[in-house]
Structure prediction request, 257 residues.
Amino acid sequence: MHPILFQIGPVTIYTYGFFVATGLMLGISLALIQAKKEGYDSQKILDGVFYIILAGIIGSRIFYVIQNLASYKDSPLNVFKLWEGGLVFYGGFLLGIPVAWILIRRQGFCFLDFFDLFAPSMAIGQAVGRIGCFFAGCCYGLPTQLPWGVTFTHPQSLALKGIPLHPTQLYSSLACFIIFFILVSFREHIRFTGQLFCLYLILHSGSRFTIEFFRGDPRPWFWNQTISLPQLISLFIFITAAFLYFYCKKTHQSANQ
Prediction:
């Protein structure tokens, strides 16, 4: 599509990096506005977010590189070129959560309260970031003859070139935008701590599991290529989040009886 947004002399601004950075800034800004409304110390929130995002980016990149080791054997330094594309959400999630747990507890926040606050921000950040995936050509889809299939032709695109593909990046972006609006609409009706965060995990893992059927980029498969590693992780997160949802609900009801 358009991996490079623009160039000014030796400075190159990659479309992927621009949209990922925009998504992060938008998500953080919305979370800080909500934190102020709820009476949290915005500086403490921002301090924690910095390290959580750093851990998330590292985890996302490690996960992507492991899935695409063959692409980095001849040029190992390309591992550090994050701006060209190549982050896997679940890698960031799996590393970011334990780091978040440690930092949030040190700051004196409740873990679930913190992520209730950030759930809509995570959704909108991913929604915008996935647009960057589309322009870079990563996370591309399977070949399709559907009228909205997209043919990538740019030589620097990470997608297969010259054939119409499912725009799975846009499927993911649309799903995350929908999740964002659901969470924002639901925020005023929260009945117990952790409800919004669990709802985000359930909706996101469900949409990711479904969209994986249309993905065409390399990733590990299991059981004779019937289910991918991201789908297994999605299934695990869905079940865990559903259990946590009902546990938090039951705990809240017991405390108020």
Remarks:
- The beta strands are 4-8, 11-14, 221-222, 227-228.
